[in-house]
Amino acid sequence: MANENLSLRQRQQQQQQQQKQQQAAVTAADMAIAVFRALPPDKQIEALGLIESLRSQGEAREPRRPALEGLCADLGVSIGGDDIATARQEMWGSFPREDFL
Questions:
Q1: Using alpha carbons only, how large is the chain's radius of gyration in Å?
Q2: What does the pLDDT average to over 20-36?
Q3: Residue 19, SS3?
Q4: What is 28-50 written as a DSSP string?
Q5: Using one digit for the tens of pLDDT, what is the confidence trace for 50-73?
Q6: How far apart, in whole angstroms, are the C-alpha atoms of residue 38 and residue 44?
Q7: Are 12 and 4 in contact, with CB atoms under 8 Å apart?
Q8: Any idea what DSSP says for residue 100?
Q9: Are 48 and 59 contacting, i.e. CB atoms less than 8 angstroms apart?
Q10: How far apart are the C-alpha atoms of 94 and 69, rounded to whole Å?
Q11: Cα dist. 15→3, 22, 29, 40 in Å?
């Protein structure tokens, strides 16, 4: 029963946070539109250019990351399960060491 109440409470808190975020986003957009409409037409054109440049910068900042599988593919390295098992035995073979006990 306590777990159900806790999860219900958590869901309610999450919903409240989402609603606040949505309201803040709407408020910011409304404020931006109000400021934009108050500008003279020539400044509105400049503002549109600024908005477009900000949007293109945001798109440019998302670099594509190479897949981990293909990162070393051109090196021709092939590591199998036996290689991994051997490396583990070498690393952990003397653990715990007697001189630390």
A1: 29
A2: 80
A3: helix
A4: HHHHHHHHHHHS-HHHHHHHHHH
A5: 989 888 876 666 667 777 777 777
A6: 9
A7: no
A8: G
A9: no
A10: 32
A11: 18, 11, 21, 40
87 falls in which pLDDT band (50, 70, 90)?
A: very high
H or E stretch including 86? helix 81-92
Neighbouring C-beta atoms of residue 40, cutoff 10 Å: 8
CA 79 vs CA 20, 53, 70, 71: distances in Å: 50, 46, 14, 14
The whole-angstrom separation of Cα 88 and Cα 81 is: 11
Peptide bond into 63 cis (omega under 30): no
Is 98's pLDDT higher than 80? no
Q: Position 80: which residue type? A: G
Structural domain boundaries in the chain = 1-53
